[in-house]
Amino acid sequence: MSPTHLLSLLPRRNPRRLLLSISLPTLFATATMSTTAPSSSTPKYGSPPTYPTRPIPPPPSSIQPPKQPLPRMDETDDSAFYAQPRFVTHIDEGAISRLREYYRWTFWDGGQDHKGIDEKGETGGVQQGNVNVGIGKKSGKTRILDLCASWVSHFPASMEKAAMATIQAKTRSEEGVKAGEDGQGRELEVWGLGMNQAELDANPILTHRTIQDLNTHPYITLPSPVSTSSTTPLNATTCVVSIDYLTSPLSILSSLLSLTAPGGSIHLVLSNRCFPTKVAGEWLRL
Fold first, then answer.
1. Residue 138 and which of 28, 57, 206, 285 are 20 to 30 A apart at CA?
2. How many other β-carbons are positioned within 10 Å of the β-carbon of residue 191?
3. Local confidence pLDDT in tens for the 286 residues of the chain
4. Assessment of whether the complete model's pTM goes beyond 0.85
5. Phi, psi (degrees; rounded to nearest 5) at 152
């Protein structure tokens, strides 16, 4: 079974969307990008970059869901493999730059980093033939889950500023500091779910940190008490170069969809780099 067929087996819950982003040469996608830097002829201020999109078709009737968990070369305890913190980036600088640009245009009002873009503070929206879910609002709270999180989330400076302002406001609430002041009153919470406490602690933009082995417990556990504050508390989820390490991806993503608000999105970023012994075998056969 190809990963495209695997993703197409996820439940359809309109208007939720499952978006797939590629940060290195395209394998398959509903949204694709390359590591090539934007052309110098592209105006610094203006229309967003184009990320071509296409829907994932329903799987053929002959395709059956794969038996989970998916097999790997190394089936030893993942907690031991990830016990040692790795303060490195697993994609190159070109990919990181393009990913930050993708997040900036996709999440944060279509590019609030650049002066002169979206000066009226209008919320971005879905653009025909492109990706721009525009969950960042002029004001209000946005919640993003960084799934399989580490010490860096690769968000652009404007989102990092909003997330850290939210954290500071929470720790100084007794002083009456307004939550989420990022220059436009937007509040951003980033929840991190990962395997290594030291890596999560080193990520300064995380509002909440959760340690969970998703290959042992293949469902999403959100931090308490926020997990009970809303039936669909998430506006978006990012998962950077990690979905291929999950042995029960259908179960995990299905539980994630149930926690995603209408109009929310899930962004899976893939790379051609991996620890081959820990990746599910289906991905190595691409």
1. 206
2. 23
3. 444 444 444 444 443 333 444 333 233 334 445 444 444 334 444 566 777 777 777 777 777 777 889 999 999 999 999 999 999 888 888 889 989 988 988 888 654 443 322 323 233 333 334 445 556 554 578 999 999 999 999 999 999 999 999 999 888 764 555 544 455 667 899 999 999 999 999 999 999 999 999 999 999 988 765 555 566 789 999 999 999 999 999 999 999 988 999 888 899 998 888 889 999 988 888 7
4. no
5. -145, 140
